[in-house]
Amino acid sequence: MADWRERSEMNGDVVFFRYVSEGMEKSHDEVFIWDLDKTYLDTTIDSLSGLMTTILERALNKKNIPGTNALLQSLSEYRKQQKGYMYFPIYFITASPPQLEERISEKFSLDNIRPFGCFYKDNLANLRPGRFWRLTKQVGYKLQALLQLRTRLGENVRQICWGDDSETDAIIYNLYSDICSRRLSAHEIRTTLEKLNVSGEQVSTILELQSNIPENDPVEKIYINLATDTDPDYYLKFGRRTLATYNTFQVALDLYQDNRISFEGIYSVIQDMIYNYSYTPEELMKSFDEFIRRGILGERAFHEIKPFFFEKGLLHASYEPSVAPLKEKTVQDGRVFELEGVHEPWIPDRIDYLHDYR
To answer: Is residue 71 pLDDT above 70, yes or no?
Structure first.
């Protein structure tokens, strides 16, 4: 196999491996973006010891976040059934070094996933005096990766993004949205990024990339996996577009509500979590109730899902949630954007990126 440098595109510490043609990249109107670490794979790369463990771990030993592989297969299959798409447009972003690309690609193959591309961070270059601090600082790296990806996609593409609460993924995805839509001035971007420990050189690269992308907001939804059990109310400051979830089952419920997977897709996730990760049906049904109680799963989706869960033996026919589900208020193209009685904005006019009130 050729050296990774010969198979990738490098820009600073952002290393990109492309697996499809440029024409294929621009042809899709909807693209999925997954942060790999603690969102798809159960890896720890936010410390030197964690990074070394990830480097030495074989592909067969890399563990998925419960339900994620089943969810990806269900998303891909439903798109094929509904729209006739043969390919699933997904990109991964990881802070793992590019030396791991072959091993992670082997894991994708084992999971029957064929991503369009994957971003890696040239983190081994940071293993020297004066650069150790960059090992765990991901805002600049991930923002640059997202903006580089934006230059590769179609003008009106919609992006559905996944991250977790162990890093700053909610900040990164929302900053990316603000940069694309020009909700922040160049001065505000520079000031904010510098306070988030992004180097001056990388800030300049980010602003240069901004000048090369369309002036619109491509981000449709942001899912945040609560890997470290952050209070989901913290994410209300980012608006309802940013959805914190306790597990992959809750993600599946929301994707069903937005007409992106089927009943069978939800059930596939449930089976994976029960039989492969020791979740109990009672635990998952508590997550179901919690999702309704938080005002996320609406009345229509609830009444469609309840008899299916009863048929599968997950709920009693007499089951009623602890609070009544809210009615859908704003639905566009099958996507639920607002429920009655919910007052937080979909996207706030301004987000406080610099104060963390968790």
So the answer is: yes
Residue-range domains of the chain with CATH: 4-246 (3.40.50.1000), 248-343 (no CATH)
Residue 254 in tokens = 């929301």
User: Which candidate, 340, 336, 312, 346, places its Cα nearest to that of 324?
Assistant: 340
**Whether pLDDT at 177 is above 70:** yes
Model pTM? 0.93
Query: Considering only CA atoms, which of 121, 111, 117, 118 is closest in space to residue 142?
Result: 121
φ and ψ of 318, to 5 deg: -90, 0
In 3-state terms, the chain is what percent helix, strand and coil (to 5)? 45, 15, 40
* Distance, CA of 358 to CA of 355 (rounded, Å): 9
Name the nearest CA neighbour of 75 among 217, 333, 268, 227.
268
In this predicted structure, what is the pLDDT of residue 256?
98
